[in-house]
Amino acid sequence: MLLSYNEIILRLAAAWVCGVLLGLERQRRGKPVGISTYVLVSLSACSIAILSAYGFQDIPHVGNSDPARLVVGILTGMGFLGAGIIWRSQEGSIYGLTTAADMWATACLGIIWGLGEFFLGLATLTLILGTLFVVKRPNFRKLISKQEESVDTQTDFHNIHDE
């Protein structure tokens, strides 16, 4: 492997912090998916990204393999996990969309940290956290509600619950 142990630890630590921060936001809101789940997703995505980018270079018969294949597998698997989080009530309301999207974003961030793209990871994490906190503000919700009332669409926005 071309990475030093210190670099691996730094990347895993960045993924761990990311998982803690995003999981804390969800746990703070009383959602069933919390810190430990987010940390597991972020750390495992990070470690697989490191493995896919650097781990096969010392093995002669797979040294020329496509490192993106493992990353694609992570994102596909997260789609299945996210699908299990989303549910529709008997009244037709939809729940779990934000948590599913947040879990997918956490896996993406784990991949970003694993590939050593620290600026991209920090910028993305900052924007995600900003979105999660700003959208929950009552004044922001009032602004969106007023805009929804003036928009004529076929989507019933009131049946989709941002958790």
Describe the structure.
The structure is a single chain. The chain has 163 residues and is an all-alpha fold. Helix content is 69%, strand content 2%. It is built from 6 helices and 2 strands; from the N terminus they run αααββααα. It has a two-stranded antiparallel ribbon with strand order 1-2. α1 packs parallel to α5 (118-135). The N and C termini lie far apart (41 Å). Residues 151-155 have low confidence and may be disordered.
What is the H-and-E element order?
A: HHHEEHHH
Shape: globular
List low-confidence stretches.
151-155
Oligomer: single chain
Biggest sheet, in brief?
2 strands, antiparallel
Category from helices, strands and their pairing: mainly alpha
- Strand element count: 2
Strand order of the largest sheet: 1-2
Query: What percentage of residues falls in helices of 4 or more residues?
Result: 55-70%
Structure summary:
This protein has 163 residues and is an all-alpha fold. It contains six helices and two strands.
